[in-house]
Amino acid sequence: MIRNELLRTLLPLLRNHLVVCNIGAPSQELHALDDQDSNFYMLGTMGLCSSIGFGLALVQEKTVVAIDGDGSVLTNLGTLSTIGNHRADNFILLVVDNGSYGSTGDQPTYTGGRTRLAAVARACGCDNVIEAPAAETPAALSLAIKEHRQTVIIAKCDSGNVDVPVIPLDPITIIERFKSTIRSTVD
């Protein structure tokens, strides 16, 4: 199962939550599958999806699912220490671990070798870490949402992209509709 197929299985679980999605192909695929005002599509800043999602979870109560990639998390491992040392039970970090930098041509990452992000997250202090094959990820995400407990899910899947168009929204439109969704949930 590749990332696009995984995202398709997660759509029913994501629709009622705030979603921060990693740059490039993941955001484009999510947008093409099911564009929602509650989705924040990152168009730049590799490595910061988990940081932005976690910060958002700290300042409001709605569930936040940050959909990050293994390559992106590897560029900002410090965010796992921040997540591990602070608590936001409305935060779920879902790392799509396909062992590659999918947006730049599927070059291999170290998670395709000896690096295990689940072990890294635990070593950084993250208490609830689940590593799951792609097919089991919807059940893991559903449980994390139901338990309302800060969770890191490492979803193991195959590398590969689907040819989808570039997101037709400009960054200002993306952020304004996302902020509007956040405001409507806290009023």
Describe the structure.
- The structure is a single chain.
- The chain has helices spanning 3-14, 25-34, 49-59, 70-75, 78-85, 117-123, 137-147, 171-186, and strands at 18-21, 39-41, 64-69, 91-97, 100-101, 107-108, 129-133, 151-156.
- Helix 2 links the parallel strand 1 and strand 2.
- It is of the alpha/beta class and 187 residues long.
Task: Offer a concise description of the structure.
This protein is of the alpha/beta class and 187 residues long. The chain has eight helices and eight strands, in the order αβαβαβααβββαβαβα.
List keywords for this structure.
8 strands, two-stranded antiparallel sheet, 8 helices, globular, alpha/beta, 187 residues
